[in-house]
Amino acid sequence: MKLLHTADWHIGRRLHGFDLTAEQQNAYAQIEQIAQEEQVDGMIIAGDLYDRRLPAETSVAMVDSMLQQLNLTDQIPIYAISGNHDSATRLATGTPWFKATHLYLHTDLSQAFQPVELSDTQLFLCPYFEPFDAQQYFSDDSLQHLDQAFERVVVEMKQHFDPTKKHVLVAHFFAAGSSTTDSETNLTVGGLAAVPTDLLTDFDYVALGHLHGKEALQSPTIRYSGSPVKFSLSEANQEKGVWIVDTAYDPVRLTFKPITPIHDVQQVTSSFAELMNPDDNDTVDHEDYVGITLTDKQPIPNVMARLRDVFPRIVTLGRTDGFETQVRYHGESSKQIRQKSPMDLLDDFYEKVAKESLSPQQEKWAKAALKVAREEGNQA
To answer: Which range is the signal sequence, renumbered to this chain (predicted)?
Structure first.
């Protein structure tokens, strides 16, 4: 079987206020083209289709359109899971009839133990889960950490191994020994642990999502596909793309297929004069998203406006002495912000501070607090 491995689409994501819809549509079109050119037997999407658990209507429409094009028009089987940024409940809508078109979208831990049977391969689709989910499934309160829970999950999966087939795991987590960027959630926060890679050695291939760089983990059979789009300046040097996984070989054969962005992401360190002189900065595409660090020691009048005339997609501005200028981004207008619900505003704020969306439990607490606030306001 030849499979395309992708993950972390994060539809709805913005880069320092800049809308990335065109970038994401461009990356998707290239993924679709690669899948057709390679004549893959299916596409793996290892979580985080959305950027947040409460996606905007435009994001929902975009994901729906992408999946329909791939699955119904192109007739490519899809093997997808929910990630930590997704709402498992929202993604699960429609799954009872998805399998009729070979669209497998697993959003609950219990589904991880029902392998998708292909001609020579078993696919185990394990959605993002927390230790509490494993405690409930196994009725075992001793599973306090993710590594403990995942060890139990793997033992259960191996009970369903067909010895005549290859075994592929699709999952979304932080694997021990991986490197991260500042746009990714750190799963070691809050008592959660990384999953040791030695738990995964019985699988012929492990298709991971969560970390945005394909080089985050160096293993011949355990790989992150990385995100198809650069979502932060710390990803500037990463090569984006997808893996083609061929299970007909032993070990499985991996081929990386790159994706070319419309506008790249760059980190630039230079003097103001050099940046403003086209002859001195021909290595920088002025249409790219750029983070600029100035080497100048003296203050420069109206520096941001002058730089933005040359670099319209400037996302950060700092100096080598550590001083950083607050950039006013071309993001949402004040009118758009005022039209947002309190929950959307809270989710936006939390994500900026914590680099992740609210968890389902946090959403419940927030909604309960807002309900109390409204009731007290009505009584005042």
So the answer is: none
Q: How far apart are CA 201 and CA 279, in angstroms?
A: 53
**Is the per-residue pLDDT at 312 higher than 80?**
yes
Distance CA 97, CA 4 (A): 23
Dig out the tokens for 230 from the structure: 């650069």
Residue with tokens 């420069």: 300
Confidence grade of residue 189 (pLDDT, cut at 50, 70, 90):
very low
Rounded to whole angstroms, how far apart are CA atoms 210 and 215?
13
Residue where the block lists tokens 């196994």: 138
The whole-chain average pLDDT of the chain stands at 86
Instruction: Report percent pLDDT > 90 for the chain.
Output: 64
* Confidence label for 377 from pLDDT (cuts 50, 70 and 90): low
Beta carbons within 8 Å of 345's beta carbon, 6+ residues apart: 337
Q: What distance separates the 2 farthest-apart alpha carbons in the chain?
A: 71
Q: List the 324-325 sheet strands across, edge first.
A: 265-270, 289-294, 314-319, 324-325
289-294 and 265-270 beta bridge pairing: parallel
CA distances from 171 to 44, 98, 151, 232, 328 (A): 10, 20, 13, 23, 37
Give the per-residue pLDDT at 281. 64
CA atoms within 13 A of residue 105's CA, in its CB half-sphere: 23
What one-character DSSP code corresponds to residue 326?
P
- Token duo for residue 140: 């075992």
b/e per residue, 345-374, with b = 16+ CB within 10 A? ebbbebbeeeebbbeeeebeebeeeeeeee
This prediction's pTM = 0.82
